[in-house]
């Protein structure tokens, strides 16, 4: 008598069985282990083999009262080796419910019913399992009854023949299931000699002949229903030693047999096979792509790796599933299925489509995916995440005595030793990305493939014209063709900066979906990937101080990352999934949409009057233009946006044609090559940049007054200009801007006249390029390239409407003087000297150097510092004054005021009310005299061009 005490780990795989008597048996997800020493099942069990060969395993659990008895018999359709005799393993699953002479069916059923016993069974390729659940007080009686039936099964010819008709009906029922029909077709086509050629139900002609096969039925039972084929698993609220004694009492005298089926060996498949199955009246079309797999050798990596490949490339989190089912919605269903079989079986991918022509589309996509598995290394983090998920999903499934018992039963039939489970998942844990690729090349070859299509059609048009997998693999090994631009400035700096600049942005927002560009960018930089949540990514980035952020403007979306060179691979493995394999989770979508809406409501409109005024100015100047909406959207549009809107924008706008990649720092060649190859998987696209029309023509002077709860009044005004950074006069105009109102500089003219001399506010500046977030920074950001710009003056908040009116008049007064008189030689030289020395400060950091270099690519200019310094060196004061005369004007202007009293501000502007300024100290007479002139200086805004708007309506 053999005896051993083991601690084991357990796992369950999906099993599509030929039959489940009384009820189906729900499966538990597969798991993998975190390391070779881990065990996913921690309870001890008692296992003993009786002298007659019966293997018994007992597991005591803490679930009170309930016991699960599972009796896997190592006989399935695999063992049906005689021609014309298929389906008997399944047939005897039915017959075992007929009872014995001591316990006829009626008596046996009545006892179990009154004892509350749940009694069921199912058949698979390699084993038949009988499972009963009951209260522990009935354990001894259940063991007695089952022992008698297994040793002394008894039935009449009438019962035999009647049950044969039942089995025929079950076959016909199952044959209406498209998945079962596909499995039957592919097995019949894929196998020539092996008994896996038929399913557990058997061939239909054999089922029809069953009523006359009673004598063979008895032979089949006597061959296989012997103790050496049977295992017994008892799990629950039991005493293991007492339970083992009870088993020996009732089962110990069962006589051992000596039969062994000679299962034929399947010859190696030498070519790809294809068959079409017509299913009259079936809606839609099915595709099944199957490859020959491996036999049950759990200590080797093959079996575990094949399961991982199926889930990685064809599971619900796979890129292909997202493409075919979620994004493009070509397929309504897609799933892999890999039955664990003793001998080499089949690895399946099922897909259902609605249109006939999509059968070839999905078949080719599956082929390309297998080619990818053969040629590219799977992301190590994705692989690790899948192993972890399967491990913990499995553990979570072991939540009852029955779940534990059914899991054990599924593995006991292999070698009747549950340690095979430990071997299998230790093998899974050791699988590397290189193993995945190697094993994919071993099994996923053209000669191992069998394809089945099924539909109402007699034939699928054009399906025979299939590109071979080997050709795809060969092609994929060619150099990757890239359709994006690369600015490679790698150097020896330990800091690595990567800037992925897409020529798209808010100007690409469709009508009614303003904000979708911003929300999409946010989902990529602040959302999770398919394999990791955003929280997991942030947690992983924290110890390496890695970053990945986004910036959005009208024509540019910049995704920027920074990391130390030592952690570049880890950083890339995390953030690449965000861009290339975004999770697009509903919770991320809701969170980020709420952030954008709150940012507009609570940030911009409620508490940032300065930025609000500047953004309203752009909004008013670009009415009906792609630049009209705020970069982060309109509130009503944002509120109505769906996750599908984001996915659609991602597909259409995040293409290689629009992508400009900037890299700097000591990024390794390996990570750089991986980055560039991965980016080449983005859609090619055909539009390199947005086509932006000219700005609307502004005629006359206009004022928009935004009324809100404000203690001061912010002012911005300006007009569109044709001059952008690539224009010949840009540097001259940039110099004028610096002289008149250099951002956050006390040396600029307006600053001196309004703040320094009069003490009216915090600062006064001028711009010829978009400069957001000006109150928080002293230098402009890169990657705000635009095809259209405005000349703008920004007056930081004034103490009152009166002061705002006066300060606007000062700015207008000084601008008119500048246009009329131009710059002096002295001012020109001083400003040129300042800029020549100042311009390197704009690109003083590594990431700014990269950003400005990408902007130079956008504008097709030399590097920023060289470009500006060269132009400055060649400028004269005459050039500058010509540009002032040609570009600046005050006849066509739009003013924006953010104030707490809109009616008062409107009345002041319309009536040209005098805006006298009072000081708290004596001022020079020259200044007082100038103030007298300015306080009446006409802004000349027609009353019909003055509007007052409640802040609640802005960007709604």
UniProtKB/TrEMBL annotation:
Recorded GO MF terms: metal ion binding
Signal peptide: 1-20
Domain Peptidase M16 N-terminal: 56-201, 489-628
Pfam families named among the record's database cross-references: Peptidase_M16, Peptidase_M16_C
Residue ranges of domain Peptidase M16 C-terminal in the record: 219-388, 641-833
Keywords: Signal
Domain of life: Bacteria
Similarity comment: Belongs to the peptidase M16 family.
Name this protein carries in UniProt: Peptidase M16
Organism: Pseudoalteromonas citrea
């Amino acid at each position: 008598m053999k005896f051993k005490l083991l601690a084991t780990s357990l796992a369950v795989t999906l099993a599509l069985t030929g039959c489940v008597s009384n009820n189906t048996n729900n499966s538990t997800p597969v798991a993998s282990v975190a390391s070779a020493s881990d065990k996913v099942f921690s309870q001890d069990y008692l296992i003993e083999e009786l002298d007659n060969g019966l293997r018994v395993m007992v597991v005591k659990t803490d679930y009170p009262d309930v016991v699960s008895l599972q009796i896997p018999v190592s006989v399935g359709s695999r063992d049906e080796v005689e021609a014309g005799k298929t389906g008997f393993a399944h047939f005897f699953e039915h017959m075992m419910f007929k009872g014995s002479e001591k316990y006829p069916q009626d008596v046996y059923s009545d006892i179990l019913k009154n004892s509350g016993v749940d009694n069921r069974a199912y058949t698979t390729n390699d084993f038949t399992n009988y499972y009963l659940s009951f209260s522990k007080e009935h354990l001894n009686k259940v063991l007695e009854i089952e022992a008698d039936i297994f040793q002394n099964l008894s039935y009449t010819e009438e019962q035999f023949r009647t049950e044969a008709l039942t089995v025929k009906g079950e076959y016909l029922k199952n044959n209406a299931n498209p998945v079962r029909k596909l499995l039957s077709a592919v097995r019949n086509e894929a196998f020539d000699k092996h008994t896996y050629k038929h399913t557990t139900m058997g061939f239909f002609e054999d089922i029809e002949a069953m009523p006359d096969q009673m004598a063979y039925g008895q032979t089949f039972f006597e061959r296989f229903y012997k103790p050496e084929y049977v295992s017994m698993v008892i799990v629950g609220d039991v005493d293991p030693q007492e339970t083992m004694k009870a088993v020996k009492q009732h089962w110990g005298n069962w006589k051992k047999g000596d039969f062994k089926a000679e299962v034929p060996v399947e010859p190696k498949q030498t070519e790809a096979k294809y068959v079409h199955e017509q299913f009259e009246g079936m809606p839609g079309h099915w595709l099944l792509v199957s490859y020959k797999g491996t036999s049950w050798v759990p200590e080797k990596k093959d079996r575990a790796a094949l399961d991982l490949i199926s889930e990685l490339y064809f599971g619900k989190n796979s890129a292909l599933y997202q493409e075919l089912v979620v994004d493009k919605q070509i397929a309504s269903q897609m799933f892999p299925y890999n039955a664990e079989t003793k001998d080499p079986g089949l690895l399946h991918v099922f897909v259902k489509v609605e249109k006939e022509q999509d059968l070839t589309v999905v078949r080719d996509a599956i082929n390309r995916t297998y080619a990818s598995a053969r040629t590219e290394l799977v992301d190590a983090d994705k692989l690790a995440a899948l192993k972890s998920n399967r491990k913990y999903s499995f553990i979570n499934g072991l939540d009852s005595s029955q779940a534990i018992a059914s899991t054990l039963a599924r593995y006991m039939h292999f070698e009747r030793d549950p340690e095979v489970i430990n071997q299998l998942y230790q093998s899974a844990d050791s699988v590397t990305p290189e193993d995945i690729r190697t094993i994919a090349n071993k099994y996923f070859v053209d000669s191992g493939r069998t394809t089945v299509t099924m539909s109402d059609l007699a034939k699928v048009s054009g399906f025979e014209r299939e590109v071979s997998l080997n050709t795809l693999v060969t092609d994929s090994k060619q150099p990757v063709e890239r359709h994006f631009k690369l600015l490679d400035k790698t150097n020896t700096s330990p800091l690595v900066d990567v800037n992925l600049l897409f020529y798209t942005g808010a100007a690409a927002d469709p009508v009614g979906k303003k904000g979708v560009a911003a929300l999409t960018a946010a989902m990529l930089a602040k959302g999770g990937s398919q394999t990791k949540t955003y929280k997991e990514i942030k947690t992983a980035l924290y110890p390496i101080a890695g970053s990945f952020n986004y910036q959005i403007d009208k024509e540019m979306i910049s995704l920027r990352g920074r990391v130390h060179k030592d952690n570049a691979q880890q950083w890339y493995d995390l953030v690449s999934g965000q861009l290339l394999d975004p999770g697009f989770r509903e919770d991320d979508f809701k969170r980020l949409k709420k952030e954008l809406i709150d940012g507009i409501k609570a940030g911009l409109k409620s508490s940032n009057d300065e930025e609000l005024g500047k953004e309203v100015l752009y909004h008013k100047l670009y009415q009906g233009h792609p630049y009209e909406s705020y970069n982060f959207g309109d509130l009503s549009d944002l509120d109505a946006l769906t996750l599908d809107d984001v996915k659609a924008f991602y597909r259409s706008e995040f293409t290689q044609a629009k992508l400009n990649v900037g890299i700097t720092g000591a990024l390794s060649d390996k990570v750089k090559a991986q980055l560039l190859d991965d980016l080449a998987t983005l859609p090619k696209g055909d539009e390199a940049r947005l086509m932006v029309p000219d700005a609307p023509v502004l005629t006359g002077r206009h004022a928009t007054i935004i009324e809100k709860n404000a203690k001061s009044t912010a002012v911005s005004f300006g007009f569109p200009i044709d001059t952008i950074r690539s224009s010949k006069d840009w540097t001259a105009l940039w110099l004028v801007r610096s002289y008149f109102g250099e951002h956050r500089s006390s040396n600029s003219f307006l600053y001196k006249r309004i703040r320094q001399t009069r003490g009216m506010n915090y600062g006064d500046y001028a711009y010829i390029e978009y400069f957001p977030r000006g109150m928080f920074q002293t230098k402009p950001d890169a990657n705000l390239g635009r095809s259209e710009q405005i000349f703008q003056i920004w007056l930081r908040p004034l103490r009152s409407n009166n002061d705002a009116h006066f300060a606007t008049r000062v700015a207008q007064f000084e601008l008119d003087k500048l246009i009329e008189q131009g710059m002096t030689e002295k001012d020109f030289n001083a400003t040129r000297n300042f800029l020549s020395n100042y311009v390197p400060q704009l690109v003083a950091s590594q990431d700014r150097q990269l950003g400005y270099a990408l902007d130079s690519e956008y504008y097709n200019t030399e590097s920023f510092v060289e470009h500006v310094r060269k132009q400055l060196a060649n400028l004269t004061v005459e050039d500058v004054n010509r540009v002032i005369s040609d570009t600046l004007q005050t006849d066509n202007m739009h003013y924006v005021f953010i104030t707490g009293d809109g009616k008062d501000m409107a009345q002041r502007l319309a009536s040209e009310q005098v805006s006298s300024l009072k000081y708290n100290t004596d001022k020079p007479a020259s200044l007082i005299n100038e103030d007298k002139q300015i306080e009446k200086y006409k802004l000349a805004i027609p009353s019909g061009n003055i509007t007052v708007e409640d802040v609640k309506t802005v960007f709604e």
